[in-house]
Every structure is written in structure tokens, then in C-alpha cells.
Model the fold of this input.
Amino acid sequence: MKEIINVDLKARTIGADVVGWKTDMLVVGCFSDQKRADDLVRELDRRVGGAIDRLRLLGDFEGKDESSAIVYGNRKTGAGRILLVGLGEKKKATLDTVRKAAAIAAKKAVKLKAGNVGLALHRALGGQFDLEAVGRAIAEGAYFGSYRYDEYVTGGENGRLKSLKVTVIDPDSVKIKRLGKGVADGVVLGGAQSYARTLANRPGNVISPAALAMEAKKLARGLKNVTCTVFDERQLKAKGMGGILAVGSGSKNAPRFIVLKYNGGPKAAGKPTVALVGKAITFDSGGLSIKPASDMDQMKLDKSGGIAVLATIRAIAELKLPLNVYAIMPSAENMPGGSSYRPGDIVTTYSGKTVEVLNTDAEGRMILCDGLAWAVKQKCDIIIDIATLTGACMVALGNYKAGLFGNDDKLIEQLQKASDDSGEKVWHMPSGDEYAKEMKSKIADLRNIGGKWGGACTAAAFLRQFVGDTAWAHLDIAGMDILTKPTESAGEGSTGFGVRLLTTYLINMAERPTKR
Done:
């Protein structure tokens, strides 16, 4: 297997002549509603003989959001190419505008095999945003846009870049110092998200529950203050984790319960202990309630929630956050077989609650309920679970936002803030008693599916039964975990959704002086 593209990203003070800086591609941003270009773009246009202005006059580049155009340099410019990236209307710009622009630039650089890129996107923004936040968004975007999953492509590379060097440049050392601090954090988050995308993209014959457990142990060995514990099938039976055992019963690849614990040291005292619980179904055929054949290959991504919490632990350990955090990954392969769990079965879960199985393809909640109950038993103050849980969430929100559910208004508000900061969008949805009533069974405590409507809400209400009074939130990321085709800013495959969101939530928590 070959390595994914390595990104080397730094911020650097350069001389006053930004236009003359030697690079394969210089990237600048342009707003669509700005009548007069900024000083850098005007100087670039002067040195390339008005080529940028001609693009605008012809209507070939209007600065619209997610658009781009290339102007070729000459002996008067240091860059072989000048990439203009549209930022849309200035009044509507957000940090995610910057993140996407950097992603577009990185994707274009990989396509053109421009291995050395100078980024001056921040120059167009003026003082619109905090420079540290801008630096972080640029770094996250550069990682996201440059990512390609081609580990198993043995031929036809056509000279694909092995590495991409990206430098955020400015002649002002004060600005670069602030940008650089954000870039350093963004490199950690971008690297963790790329790590998550690679693991999620790996197919079921490569990543089984046991293989995922080995990856978690490997990660823990390389990080300070992180330990890893894995319960195998025998231990799962001894502990009574019936939900995970039921889902994994049809596969020759036995389930695992994977726990990473990050110890934030003395400074974590007084902060809440957080549990991140991620659904890690390494392949989901639906079990006996088998899925249609169309797009079943995408079910290798049903482990995306678990991978997100794994990568989040990597990020917070590298950032050295003063928090205590568990990453809990119940992992199984949901397959049909002679020993599979069946519709009509009654399963006793780790909490002691019994569940009537009506559909074996509603397996995510069956493993998550054991993970949630285990987090409660560890006396965690806050529990957040993340899962590709329901197609119903995609029906409600499309591929634009994840569903956010929970029992604590303050936690919901904090996750919404993290969503705004990270660019990973969520929408608050209900999961109250009216939905919980649909999950009651006549022959067990609960059933694993509700009625025809509101499937994302009833699934969340089911999970809610296993957290008691603990502050809890549920992220249904179905539809957000995958790009089925390339976009202007990213290649197809896993998105690594949730890594930036969860890490940002924890960064914000670490910066708060009070317990909650």
C-alpha cells in the first residue's frame, strides 16, 4: 500500500514582494461583490499585463463562492501559476468560506502536480476574522482538499504527488505569528481528519473489528497519556454486552469493545470527564434484514462514528488538552449467517434492559446502547455518541447537516457553537417522550425500531433510555460521512466528519474556566 499525500504546512514571513515569491502556485482570494480588488491582486494583475482584469470583464471569473481560475505567471512574478479562488459575497463570508477556499486550492494543486504552494488567502479578508482562526481554517482546508484515497491503486498514478508543501505567506511578522499559531492547531486537526478518512475508506476485508482494535492499540502506543483496552468475545459474554454480541453473531469476524482513555493530567482536575461513543460497524450488510445490493459497498463506512472518536483522541493528545476523555468504540460486523440474530429475538443488553429485535438492520443502536451504558458506569459527566445511524436523518436533512439530539440544553448549545467554529454543520432535532413511546415493546422493555415516520428521532429516543440523568448528545451523521462524487473542494469517499466538530468542542471546553 502506498501512503496518502503528505502535507507539509507552515506559516512564514517573507519579504515585502509577495508577488515575487518563488512558488509553483500562488493562491489569492477574491470577493464577488468587491468593486476594487485588494492591493495584492491589483499588483499581480499589473505584472501579468491585466490578465486578471480581463478574466473578470469576460465573465470567466466573478469571484463566486467555490469558483476558481488560473492565470499563468511570467518573469515578473515568482509564481508559475496564480490561482484566483472565489470567496462569494464579503458580507456572507465565514471561516468556512476560508476553509473551502484553501481546500479548493489544495485540490487544484494536487491535480496540477504543483508541489509547492504559497497561500495568501487571508489578504483578501482584511481584519474580518481573527487571524489565529483564519490560520487554523486554512490548514484544515488544505488537508481536506489535498486528500486522495488511493492506497490500493498499483498503477496509473501518472506521477501523483507524494507530498504537498503549503506555505501561508505574509511580509508582516506579527500577522504571521498569529496565523502560525492557528496553522499549527489546524495541522493537528487536518492530519487527524485525514487519518480518519483513510481508516474509514478501508474495506471490510481489511478492517474487521479485531483489525480496528489493533489500530487503536497502535495509536495509543504512539501517544502520551493514552491507554487502550479491548474486550474480546469472551469478555463481552462475561460482561453481558448482549447488544454487541447479537449484532456480531452472524460473522466469522468476532466483535470487539474498544476503549481509549486520554488523561489530561493535573490541569484536567475540575473539568468534566467526557465519553465519546462511536458506532464502529466495520461492514453492514443489514444482517438477515439484508440491504439492497445497490451501494452496499458504501457500508464499509458504517464505522465512521467509531473512527471519528478514535481520530479525536489522536488530535486532543497531540494538542495536549487538559481534559479526561474516553473514546468508546463498540465494533462488530453485521452479516447474515446461521448464527445471526433474528427478527423476533429478545436481547438483554449491558444495562440489563431487554430489546425486541424487529429489524436486524437497526443494528447501530444495538451496539451503541452497550457503549452508552458502559460510559455511564464509568461515571462520565458528559456522553456524546456519533453514528451513521438512520437513513431517516438523510431524508430530513439531506447531505448538508448532521442531526443533533440530546437531553441537556447547555450541551446542545456548546455543540452548536463547535459546529459553527469547525464548519461541520449540525441541526438540533427532538427525541423526547413522544418518540420514546414508539420504542416500547409489549414483550420486552424496548423494541429496536419505531413506526414509519420520524425514524431519526425515535432512534435517538431509544438511545436516550441508556444514559439516565447523564448529560448526553447524539450525532446522527448519516449522509455526512461520504462524498459519493468529487466536489470542487474534495475527492470522493469518506469525509472524516465529526473529527473537527468533536475536537473543537473539546478545545472550547478546555478553554472554559468553569466545570460546564
Q: What stands out?
A: The chain is about 35% helix and 20% strand. The chain has a mean pLDDT of 96. The radius of gyration is 24 Å. The longest strand covers residues 325-334.
